Amino acid sequence: VSRIDRALIDIVDRCLAVNPERRFPNVQAVIDALNARDLAKVRRPLMFLGFVGPLLLFVVMALFGLRGYDDAVGESEEFITLRARESNDFAAKFAASSIEGEIRRYFRVARSEAERAELHDLCTSLGETDIVQQLNRPTASSADVEILRRTFFDDPKRQQLHGYLRQRVDSYLQRLQDEPSELKLASIFVVDKTGRMLAGAYDDPATVNLSSGWNYSYRSYFHGGAADLSEDHRDWQDRGSRDVSPIRETHFSAAFQSTTTGIWKVAVSTPIFKNNDPQSDTLGVLAMTVN
Predict the structure, then answer these.
(1) Contact at 8 Å (CB) between 135 and 149?
(2) 3-state secondary structure of 273
(3) pTM for this predicted structure
(4) 62-88 pLDDT, tens per residue?
(5) What share of the chain is helix, strand, coil (3-state, %, to 5)?
(6) Which residue in 222, 224, 212, 208 sits closest to 135, CA to CA?
(7) Any idea which of 13-22, 139-148, 203-212, 267-276 has the lowest mean pLDDT?
(8) Which residues are paired to 191 by β-bridges?
(9) 272 φ/ψ angles, rounded to the nearest 5 degrees
């Protein structure tokens, strides 16, 4: 019969058993069995709670434990991230300080090179030649400049300036061999006060300065701006003088791709003042590049 529990079924079965040994010995035994059944029904929820309760307690403790673990991991990760940021900040400042010191060295050396009397004499002599004057005519066409450049390249005074710059580059390369911490120059070159490339020498002696005679006043190392003035380099280079003023103080240029080597460089450039007087006119700009 549905809804009758197993304990009552067992009591009824024993009462109706054919074998006398399976039956209750008396009425009191039947009453005791019924009372035991009632007591078991009362205890059953407590037994269930006694089993489930610790399990629920374990689950709750596990959840809180996992939450505490996650919080601890999160706090640890936050602590590690904070320490890593502090370490990175220190490393970045240290690297920036080292780079700043390196750039300061280039600034100091560039100014020293720009103040050399021999350089002044060579730039003045070359700047006064007829061919440089013709190259810098505002009305000079691309065809005129191209023809003049071929003559200019072989000009004896330009060759003298090139030879001087070659010696200066070689002197730094020799120092670098003797002391690895010395400046790692890629080239030294000079442009006149209009931006016209006069001469240059490279770390590889076999490199020919194909830029001589072209106008580079659009480069940031000449005018001191944050970027080059034109992307159409050939059109700018082939023309005559442009209305762009040269720098008046030492400058760290934007990165640029060399038209001679095709290598990306940065330049530390500085003005070449007449008689080394910052209040006077400029003879041109000297630049020292690093690949």
Answers:
(1) yes
(2) strand
(3) 0.67
(4) 888 888 888 777 778 888 888 888 888
(5) 55, 15, 30
(6) 212
(7) 139-148
(8) 197, 285
(9) -105, 105
For residue 2, pLDDT over 90 is answered with no
Which tens digit of pLDDT belongs to each residue from 169-188?
Answer: 999 998 888 887 778 899 99
H/E stretch holding 272: strand 264-273
CA pair distance 105, 235, nearest whole angstrom: 35
Helix (H, G, I), strand (E, B) or coil at 35: helix
Which tokens belong to 132?
Answer: 């440089």
Task: Give 30: exposed, middle or buried? Use CB within 10 Å, 0-12, 13-18, 19+.
Answer: middle
Residues whose CB falls within 8 Å of the CB of residue 248, separated by 6 or more in sequence, listed in order: 224, 271, 278, 282
Question: Which of 248, 247, 162 is CA-nearest to residue 205?
Answer: 162
Sign of the dihedral through C-alpha 136, 185, 114, 166: negative
Q: State whether residue 257 is helix, strand or coil.
A: strand
